Model the fold of this input.
Amino acid sequence: MDRKKFITSSALLAASALSWGALAKSFTSNSVRVGVIGIHGMGWANLQAILKDKRVQCTALCDVDQDVLTKRVGELAARNIHVTTYTDYKELLNDPKVDAVIIGTPDHWHCLQMVDAVKAGKHVYVEKPIGNSIAECEVMVAAAQSRRAIVQVGQWQRSQQHFKDAIDFVHSGKLGKIRQVKAWSYVGWKTPITKKPDGVAPAGVDYNKWLGPAQKRAFNPNRFHFEFRWFWDYAGGLMTDWGVHMLDYALLGMKVSDPVSVMAAGGKFADPNGASETPDTLTAVYEFEDFNIQWEHAIGISGGPYNRDHGVAFIGNNGTLVLNRGGWEVIPESNRMPAVSLQKSVDDGLDKHMVNFVYAIMQQKPEVLHAPIEAGAHIAIFAQLGNIAYRTGQKLYWDKDKRQFTNRRANRLLAARYHNGYTMPKA
Done:
């Protein structure tokens, strides 16, 4: 695909995604039949949300863990919902009774499954971050655009009203010149994972299918289910897990896309001998022409900036706007502007996100999506820039036109390596 067109469309769509259209128009079809690939964690949560829409039916589930699959089938049967089950996602994609798929698998599977899904003519809801590398994100955008597919990314905060209201306030100019934006996630409930010996995969788990394109390794419980996100083979740690949520709004608020440079420092400070590979403590600084965006995270600590465990803060000459999932407020700088008391969240972002997804499908209009594939790729790439800076230990300069670093070593991390006979999909 044309790389210049990619970043231009990404920036425009990131801004346009904040335009809430009325959802009261008549639908053009009566129902959407949904299949879920990866039903253990967010895949299940996403299914519960979309089933609140009476026009949606669940017709199929796919998972490589038979215990998880059996459990979910039973839970749906108790609600008089009966589904076909698969352990191979490609068989689900061939099911004519599936119109749309929800992809809730580990990050390293997202690209293959999403590209295969749109090629099979399915609509897609894919969890964030959309890919585990910058190259994967670009392939996914190209695949969706070439087919005008309806692909919603799980950045559900884009469907919450208070996030829109906060960004509208930032854009009003009342904060004055914004010189610094901070985004963060402090995960106090999570403790570092201790090392465990390799072993045999649990009965009923097709471990080879779980690994897919990831490097072949002996099964280890620390690398399975939820904990996979702390290993580079499968994910990018808190930077891509939470960073894509908070940094997304940092970029939307500042109406920017590409940084001039990025640098990052951190490490396994909470438990240097722990099993995880990704840093439990990290600070990344993205340089723009006349302001910086700073990301920070810490596992095992709850006391983040402004007494919030997650959020984004726009620090202006007149005041600071602090925003998170609970709401937003403005803290004035001396007497330069009035304070704005906490404006609390009043809606369910995930539920509204699914309403928006179903509406786009029924109207066949990808342009009405709140978090289209372009926006999901844009922020996933931005988060990956920070991770690559951390992994190289260098300040990196980003060429926005060539879509690569000026550093050869860093450019080797732009694409994920595929193993076990799998290859990077083509759009």
About this structure: The mean pLDDT is 93. The longest strand covers residues 178-187. The CA atoms of residues 40 and 71 lie 9 Å apart. Residues 3-158+349-380 form a domain with the Rossmann fold fold (CATH 3.40.50.720).
